From TrEMBL:
NCBIfam families: phd_fam (TIGR01552). Belongs to the phD/YefM antitoxin family. It comes from the Bacteria. Antitoxin component of a type II toxin-antitoxin (TA) system. It comes from Candidatus Woesebacteria bacterium GW2011_GWA2_44_33. Pfam families: PhdYeFM_antitox. InterPro entries: Antitoxin_Phd/YefM, phD/YefM_antitoxin, YefM-like_sf. Coiled coil: none annotated. This is Antitoxin.
């Protein structure tokens, strides 16, 4: 989690290029104030994109429902990780040339 550092607008102006370096290279976040009140937040573009993606997901009721259902299935044990599945099937991970795989236990019973 990135903790925001609070800095006055005048201090931000005097140290603008240093702030850019801190945000770009150290992924720091700065809340810039004017007369003691927060006015803007300076953060890395990747962090902004992540927040935007999160907001998009949270605003899509169907997608959010699907995510919550998937998480419930995972917690109930109906979905297992690739590693656990391969172990159950007696397959060594090195023998596969694929990415992450998830397996529904309910399909195993049919």
């Amino acid at each position: 989690m990135n903790i925001s550092n609070t800095i006055s607008a005048s201090k931000a102006r005097n140290n603008f290029y240093t702030l850019i370096e801190e945000v770009a290279n150290k992924l720091k976040r700065f809340t810039i104030t004017k007369r003691g009140q927060a006015q803007v937040v300076m953060m890395h573009p990747d962090e902004v994109a992540s927040w935007e993606e999160t907001m998009d997901i949270l605003s899509d009721k169907k997608l959010l429902t699907d995510i919550l259902k998937s998480e419930a299935e995972r917690k109930s044990g109906r979905i297992v990780s690739e590693t656990k599945l391969l172990k159950e099937l007696g397959i060594a991970p090195k023998d596969l040339k694929i990415g992450k795989v998830f397996y529904k236990r309910s399909l195993q019973q049919h």
